[in-house]
Amino acid sequence: MLSISVAALIWLVSLRTFSTALDPTLEGTWRDWKATHGKEYVQEEESFRRAVWEENLQMIQDHNKQADLGKYTYWLGMNHFGDLTNEELDKRLHCLLSDVDNVTNVKGITFKSSDDPDIPDHVDWRTKGGVTEVKDQGECGSCWSFSATGALEGMHFKKTGKLVSLSEQNLMDCSTEPQNDGCDGGYTHLAFETVRKLGGINSEKSYPYDGKLGSCRYDPQESITRCNSFGQIMENDEKGLQEAVAKIGPISVGIDARSKKFGYYKSGIFREPNDGEKQTNHAMLIVGYNDSSVGNGYWILKNSWSTLWGEEGYMRLSKGSNQCNVAEYAVFPIPDPKKGK
Fold first, then answer.
1. pLDDT tens, 143-185?
2. By C-alpha distance, which of 171, 276, 168, 188 is closest to 233?
3. How far is it, in rounded angstroms, from Cα 181 to Cα 190?
4. Is 170 a catalytic residue?
5. Residue 83 backbone phi and psi in degrees, to 5
6. Nearest 5 degrees, angle CA 23-CA 24-CA 28?
7. C-alpha span between 150 and 294 (Å, rounded)
8. Residues 166, 149: Cα–Cα separation, whole Å
9. Among the options 56, 95, 140, 143, which is catalytic?
10. Residue 311 in contact with residue 262, Cβ under 8 Å?
11. What does residue 254 show for φ and ψ, rounded to 5 degrees?
């Protein structure tokens, strides 16, 4: 349940009452949605959340009508975010720190792309067995740690042939210097640096996720894998990013998720006009791409918002025009060359 003062709720409800009358025909749909997602509210909050939900539902329905007519290449769907305002959604889900220039403070190894790479026109690391199940960051702004574990899991799989779910909580608790801040955001490349400094990372099973910052409990005896350093793709180099996904494995990327529609993406190939800002505020994991479809193809991205979002937790993102600034911040762990873990 969201925390909001009664006085603020009364003001917000009264404000919306003048502009938005609740639709009685949606009463059953509203009850079903609350039951599906386990939503409960205090009496003062119910009307406010219902009004927010109805506005979001109307936006979704309007978009889908236009998508059915061919205006868009993707569709939206009501999900567990439906009772959140734009401001609340932004605060809860956008958790990659936005100072991209900070990447230069810790230098990685720049990926050198080929002029004419010999790579397939489609790659999907899920079908290769290198991607774990879709996870859920919950109300914690820890997307950076989920993106990082996804890349580390892929790295470990490629090195050993074993797929092991790794601990986001391990990264949150132990990656607090100099900039990462648990539920308040962080950088994936600094998560890789943490694994390097610790000498490893524990599994999800031995160090489970609880969605809040705690003390570092990393156990070197339970380490699953190590990384030696991290690599980075040149900014705005989608061709280099594609080659890296094909040759290296899943890649951690920053995404501009400011669009309200992003939060309610359900299916199709997501594409929105680019406003020209070089901004990233959410971390995801590229697990593949497809160039054999119409147009320039699409990226396959794994999210950390549960399987209730998108295509069972995944998104297809239009490729070739740096949609959502997908090639602005792309990094990956480099495995320790030593044998074993």
1. 999 999 999 999 999 999 999 999 999 999 998 766 788 999 9
2. 188
3. 11
4. no
5. -100, 10
6. 110
7. 28
8. 6
9. 143
10. no
11. -95, 145
Annotation says 303 is catalytic: yes
DSSP conformation class of 74: E
Residue 73: CB atoms within 10 Å: 15
DSSP 39-53: ----HHHHHHHHHHH
Is the separation of the CB atoms in 226 and 199 below 8 Å? yes
Q: Which residues contact 92 (CB under 8 A, 6 or more apart)?
A: 84, 139, 141
* Location of structure tokens 């993106």: 147
Instruction: Report pLDDT digits (tens) over 104-120.
Output: 456 788 998 888 789 99
Indicate the SS3 state at residue 170. Answer: helix
- For residue 120, the cross-strand partners are none
Between CA 243 and CA 315 the distance in angstroms is 20
CB atoms within 10 A of CB 69: 8
Among residues 63, 156, 189, 282, which one is catalytic?
Answer: 282
Of these residues, 281, 303, 322, 325, which one is catalytic? Answer: 303
How is residue 127 written in tokens?
Answer: 């079908």
143 is catalytic: yes
CA distances from residue 130 to 27, 28, 36, 113, 290 in whole angstroms, order as listed: 44, 42, 31, 23, 17
Q: Max Cα separation, the chain? A: 68
CB 320: neighbour CB atoms within 10 A? Answer: 14
DSSP notation for 311-323: BTTEEEEETTTTG
Q: How far, in Å, CA of 255 to CA of 253, rounded?
A: 6
Residue 337, pLDDT above cutoff 90: no
